[in-house]
Amino acid sequence: MLKFFRKIRYDLMEKNKTRKYLKYAIGEIILVVIGILIALSINSWNENRINKQKEKLLLNELHKEFISNKIQLDSVLFYNKRSFQSVKYVRSKLPIDLESINLDSLAYHLYHLGYTHTFNPSKGVTNALMNSSTFNLISNDELRQLLIRWDDVVTDFQEEEIFAYNNYVNQLKPFEKKHFYWDHYDQWLTEPRVDISILKSIEFDNYILDRYYDLFNIFENTSGELETVTKSIDKIIELSKPEASE
Length: 246
Hints:
Elements: H1 2-14, H2 18-92, H3 103-112, H4 124-130, H5 141-179, H6 202-221, H7 223-239
Helix pairs in contact: 1-2, 2-3, 2-4, 2-6, 2-7, 5-6, 5-7
C-alpha cells in the first residue's frame, strides 16, 4: 500500500502537476490522521475494556467484604441488644427485694448483660483500594465517596462500643467475679458461697446502672452513628454488585 502511494507521488512530481500533487498530499495526510485516530480509538476502547474487567473484579471482592461486614454488624447488634434487654430488666427491679425477686430470672439476665461485642469490620480490600491507584478504577462517584468516608464512619460508631467494652472488662467484670459464681448462669446466685445480700447494696445498683448507661449510649445517644454505619454498608453492597458497574 505504501509503495502504491509513493508511486503516485513520484508520477505527479515528474509530470510537474503541482496542484494535483498538493491535493493528493493533503488527502494522504488526512488518511494518515484518520488512521491514527482509528488506532487511538481502538487502543482507548481496549484499555477501557480492560479497566472495566479490573473494576468488575475489584467490585466483586469489595462486595464480598461488605457482605461479611454486614453479617458481623448484625451479630454484634444482636448480642448487644440482648445485653441491653437484660440490663433493662434488672434495672427495672432495683432496688432488689430478696423476698420477691425470682433469683433464676435475675441470674439469667445478669449473665447475659455481660455480652461485650464490638464491631471490627474487615478492611483489607478497602484499604488496598484506598492506598493504590486502583481506586481510580471505581467509576461510581457515590461509591467512591462512601469508601473515602468509611474509616470515619466506623470510628464514630466504635467510640461508644469501645468505651462500654473497656468499662465492663476493667470495672464491672471484677465486681461479678468477686460476688457471683462465674460458671453457667444457673449457678451465679445459687452457689453456696455466694452472699446474695450484695444484691441489696448501692454498689450492686451502681454496677447495673453503669452497664445500663453504657449500652444506652450505644443504642440511643449514638443512634445516628448506628444508622449511618448501617446505611453505608447497605449502600456499598448495593453499588458494588457486579451488575451495578455494567
